[in-house]
Amino acid sequence: MATIRQIAQLAEVSTATVSRVLNNDTTLSTSAETRERIFAIAEELDYKPQRLKKLKQEMQRSTLQIGLLFWSTAEEEKNDPYFTAVRRGIEIHCEQLGISITKIIRGDYTTAYEEAAELDGLLVVGSIDVQDVLDIYPRPDRIVFVNHGEELLDYDSVHLNFDGAIRTSYHYLTSLGHEKIGFIGGVEWVHSLREPRSLKRSQEHRYLAYNRMLREYGHHYACVEWVDDWSTQGGYEAMKNILARGDRPSACLIASDHMAVGALYALNEAGISVPQEMSIIGFNDIEIAAFVNPPLSTVHAHTELLGETAVKMLVERMEGRKVAMQVKLNTTFIERESCMKINN
Predict the structure, then answer these.
(1) CA 124, 130, 134, 137: dihedral to nearest 10 degrees?
(2) What stretches of 218-256 show up as alpha helix (H) in DSSP?
(3) Phi first, then psi: what are they for 22, rounded to 5°?
(4) DSSP letter assigned to residue 333
(5) What is the rounded CA–CA span in Å between residue 211 and residue 209?
(6) Phi, psi of 226 (to 5 degrees)
(7) Interatomic CA distance for residues 115 and 112, integer angstroms
(8) Cβ(248)–Cβ(242) under 8 Å?
(9) How confident is the model over 202-236, as pLDDT tens digits?
(10) How far does Cα 237 stand from its chain's mean position?
(11) Cα–Cα distances in angstroms (integers) from residue 2 to residues 14, 54, 298, in the given order
């Protein structure tokens, strides 16, 4: 059986250095080259190979430089629970793995190109033009896209199972007797690094799922309103537009809780009782959803898990996975008091 003394002799270092390297002593001041040499000799001599493999992975991960690429500004991220939760999930899991996030990249193409150059891997949060991303960081096997608005078959991506979320919500409403079900959606954009003012509209997956449910149930009533900025004000105005039509739905699916809060205000202002006269379901399960009147039934999106999963996928790629993966994370339906059974 190999000993530390043998490894030290072959590596031309002290036994204390070998011991501290093999025990992943982060306070030891020695070069990466020396650490790699010690690990290589220890493996060659079959010195506790399983423990060595884990230690070597930990050492390699500690030297990785990972970047986060956002299309949102710092202020937009701060004010949006989605971005905040995704980033929190990324940071927590990176810390658990001993990985450092060395760059937070925002801004124009030139800035992104310069800051991405030295990275070992890149996590792209939100919908940014794929070709722009590849132009600034031409390593497709070291990129993970988080909740991109488009289907990305050739790249690692993780996103929410919007189809399942809307399916569950729609089934729930039909179980309560609803057939006239409306939809308020937010406009999805793919952002360009080269031309920040050039936005490309992408398909909104919750709306596509809503349409599929209409066809599945044979419901011919369709009532749809769009909100450009996903805001509470936008939800308020969208619901006012629905009420102005006259033939209002008995229930409404709303693509974010922020918009649902605005919709509730519009209904209250119009003297329409929720859920007695209209049932409402939101999406995301933000903190305020449980405290509005009535408490909002919604879909809980596991956004921190999005960030955690993205980190896991990136590490897998760095450690040898060859095939791109697309991961869908399920959501959880939260039943509160904004829906009720009706008699048709």
Answers:
(1) -10
(2) 232-244
(3) -70, -15
(4) E
(5) 5
(6) -115, 145
(7) 5
(8) yes
(9) 889 999 999 999 999 999 998 999 999 899 999 99
(10) 28
(11) 16, 18, 60
Structure tokens that stand for 171 in this block: 């089934």
The amino acid that residue 249 corresponds to is: P
SS3 for 65? Answer: strand
Residue 235, C-beta contacts closer than 8 angstroms, at least 6 positions apart:
184, 227, 254, 256, 258, 259, 260, 261, 262, 263, 266
Predicted TM-score (pTM) above 0.90: no
Query: Given a cut of 90, is residue 48 above it in pLDDT?
Result: no
pLDDT for position 80: 81
Encoded tokens for 326: 């697309």
Tokens describing residue 161: 């199972």
Q: How far is CA 290 from the centre of its chain?
A: 22
Maximum CA pair distance of the chain? Answer: 87
CA–CA dist 291, 198 (Å, integer): 38
**19: its two tokens:** 């011991």
